[in-house]
Sequence to fold (182 residues):
Amino acid sequence: MSTTATGTFTFRPLDPLKDAGLLHRWVTHPKAAFWMLQDASLVDVERAYMEIAADEHHHALLGLQAGEPAFLMEYYDPVHRELVGLYEPQPGDIGMHFLTPPTDHPVRGFTRSVITAVMAHLFEDPAVKRVVVEPDVANKAVHALNEAVGFVPEREIQKPEKRALLSFCTRDQFFAARGVAV
Fold:
């Protein structure tokens, strides 16, 4: 559980079959263009998340607010997924993605609260020393959010599907960005 400026969030494992319809609406929306699933069918989304559910190195969670799905969070071991061969992983590294769904009634500060809750959730595990992200270089909005929670860009990298900005956030950087003494 994580309490933020816009409320309290809890997390539950994503159920690829039960949650596929919801995820399909989220990842195919124009707002989610950087997820590169714009043309995915419901079955495509279901399959993609069934693969994640079966993968010991990649996990998907739904963030809940008042018990209702409010965002998607994925985390992965960069030694085995996403960034293999693209940087030198350190012990305690974990990769992360998050997605807030489209809404007709945006709440100011919601997305920042989501990334804060995601980071707090990851750092609840004492084995996690540093979070690594690789958003598309063109995704300026997420770069600003990443910076707000303590991420420091290292360099651009070329992934098979995109040009990405490799960035890192240690536990100390995250807590300093929140104004919390460690």
